[in-house]
Amino acid sequence: MQVNFQHDKSGFVFDRKTGVARDFHIKTILNLLSIVSLFVIWELLVHFRVYRFALLPSPAEVLNWGVEWVKSPDFWMDASLTTLRVFGGVTVACIIAIPVGLMIGWNKVFSDLTFPMLEILRPIPGIAYIPIAILFFPWEEASIAFICFVGAFFPILLNTIAGVGSIDRDFFRAARCLGSKPGQVFWHVVMPGALPSIATGAALGMGIGWMASVAGEMISGKWGLGYRIWEAYTLIRYPLIVDGMIAIGILGLGSSMLIRCLMMRMMPWRKAITESLDTTITT
Amino acid sequence: MASSLQHTAFRDIQKRIISWATFRRIMSVLLFLLVWTIIVKFIGYFHQLPGPQAVFMALFKLKPGALFTEILRSFLRVMAGFLLGLLIGFPIGVAIGYSRIANYLLFPAVELIRPIPPIAWIPLSVLFFINIESQIVFLTFYGAFFPIVYNTMRGISEVDIRLPRAAMSFGMTRTKMLWRVVLPAAMPQIFTGLKVAMGITWLMVVAAEMIASKGGLGYWVWYHNTVMEYPMVILGMGIIGLCGALCSLGIDLVGNHCMKWRGLF
Questions:
Q1: Which CATH code is given to the segment(s) A59-265?
Q2: Cross-chain residue pair A128–B24, CB shorter than 8 Å
Q3: Considering only CB atoms, which chain B residues are within 8 Å of A135?
Q4: B54-264 belongs to which CATH class?
Q5: B168 contacts in A (CB within 8 Å)?
Q6: Residue in B213, B237, B239, B240 to test binding to A, most A beta-carbons within 10 Å
Q7: Spatial contact of A1 and B158, defined as CB atoms under 8 Å apart
Q8: In terms of Cα–Cα distance, which of B135, B134, B136, B139 is closest to B119?
Q9: Mean pLDDT in residue range B3-29
Q10: CA-CA distances (angstroms) from residue B150 to A30, A157, A159, B81, B114?
Q11: Where are the alpha helices (DSSP H) in chain A?
């Protein structure tokens, strides 16, 4: 196809005129044009007061406020707190979801006993847990970490289960031929085989954890990036809103990439994982 | 007077429905309720959490009329945002996946905005849209937009290259090929994207309603939270989950209809 991220050579079926070298230049130019025009259109919309865009901050304002904000210690406090909450929630989600998912994928009895209930709980969005979180974790950090946990739990679980299901059955047969006990099969076949999907799920869960943390902090919090965004709105410091959004976006992307790198190190047999983050299974 | 073939078929169905697996599945729900009751009764920290009994009793206290209005409101917002996201996101996703120029022009911009969580857009949308309904519809649209664009793009770009090549050997033009070959082949991934988008849309509706307080299920849950009627809160959570599941089921049904060829292989 035109754009196939894994086998680029197939992209030349349709464009007979463009060769490899020219394609490279066109690609870079158009990509840059895309990013630049985004900012240009934004600036123009605000400058000419199109519709209600006059109320929104312009790119220049956002940049100025942003630079000042990063220099202040406030920002680092907020960023580290939010990061802590997200990482805490997602780590606990991993610790619980990965073993449970592996067991569900491996053992049918266990799957029948736990999976139906989890499937029933799955459609409930993490945000709906906020009242309960506030009730039980009066301490802010834990309540927001709990919401991140709920948000990240199901993607990780589902991807782990799919990971176990995707292991080639021949590996199990080979292991049995070599005389391995069930525990050894679990450790040497199931776990490494499911690892790629677990990596995808963990990166996905991290992304959703960031989303959930913003929600949690907006509704209940004193420190943190989400809270800062909401405060910027109430204090009429609009450029800070966009700065906060950008900060969350960058940190969210960074942590997803971090988890992905971490996971890839555990899988030396995979040369490249080219699937990106929003794959099949989510909420 | 059933023939022996019908008899064995009936026996197979009987075996599938009445089996240890089904028993275990029912046990799973009961086990959950048991654990829940134990946590509420015996662990002091959670004594404020309503047990399954309290939630069940709350079911009878429901006023069906009022609740139905709220459900309808949320549902309409979800539909509006989802359809808008589909209308705008699907062509963009197809363009990015199918045309190289469109890909180079649009993909970087999309990838740049995608990491920003939809919830972070709430303050800006409150600024920008005067009408609260438009705010909520915008947020749901935004939530649905990126999964649809991303999965459509991936679905199209990951179509087996041999299919369009075979079509070209038969002399198909590019435009015809899009409708007849590429889109049907990309359908599974597109529908996955639709399901993800539906889940995120419900998330956004609940979040927006909790903050904006203008009717709907999210507001209902939040209101009962402020008056401390926790059984209703849990009931509300369950209803939100049920609605989301029904919508996903709806998408599944539409998908099965569109992809009738799936069962053939």
A1: 1.10.3720.10
A2: no
A3: 48-49, 230
A4: mainly alpha
A5: 13
A6: B237
A7: yes
A8: B139
A9: 76
A10: 19, 22, 18, 17, 9
A11: 20-47, 59-71, 73-106, 108-121, 130-136, 140-165, 169-177, 182-185, 191-219, 225-234, 238-265
Cα–Cα distance between B201 and B185 in angstroms, integer?
A: 26
What is the enclosing helix (H) or strand (E) of B45? none
What three-state secondary structure class fits A274? coil
Q: Is a pLDDT exceeding 50 seen at residue A275?
A: no
CA pair distance A119, A116, nearest whole angstrom: 5
**Burial of B205 by CB count in 10 Å (0-12 exposed, 13-18 middle, 19+ buried)?**
buried
User: Cα–Cα–Cα angle for A17, A21, A25, nearest 5°?
Assistant: 95
Residue B145 near residue B89 (C-beta atoms within 8 A): yes
Amino acid identity for residue A205 in this structure: G
| Contact residues, B window 49-108, toward A, CB-based 8 Å cutoff | 49, 96-101, 103-108
For A57, which residue in chain B has the nearest alpha carbon? B124
Per residue in A33-80, pLDDT (tens digit) is: 888 888 888 888 888 877 777 778 888 888 888 888 888 888 888 888
- Do B103 and A2 lie within an 8 Å CB cutoff? yes
Q: Please, which pLDDT band fits residue A15 given cuts at 50, 70 and 90?
A: very low
- The number of CA neighbours under 13 Å toward the Cβ of A59 is 11
Number of neighbours of residue B223 by Cβ within 10 angstroms: 16
CA B258 and chain centroid, separation:
18
In chain A, where the domains are located: 8-55, 59-265
State how far residue B198 is from chain A, nearest Cα, in angstroms: 9
Cα A108 to Cα A251, A281, B30, B94, distances in angstroms: 39, 21, 18, 40
B203 chain-A contacts, CB cut-off 8 A: 125-127, 283
Alpha carbon distances (Å) from A183 to A106, A170, A187, A192: 11, 17, 6, 13
At B185, list the tokens: 């082949």
Cβ contacts of B212 within 8 Å, gap of 6 or more: B126, B132, B135, B136, B219
CA A222 to chain CA mean position, Å:
24
* Contact between A126 and B216 (Cβ < 8 Å): no
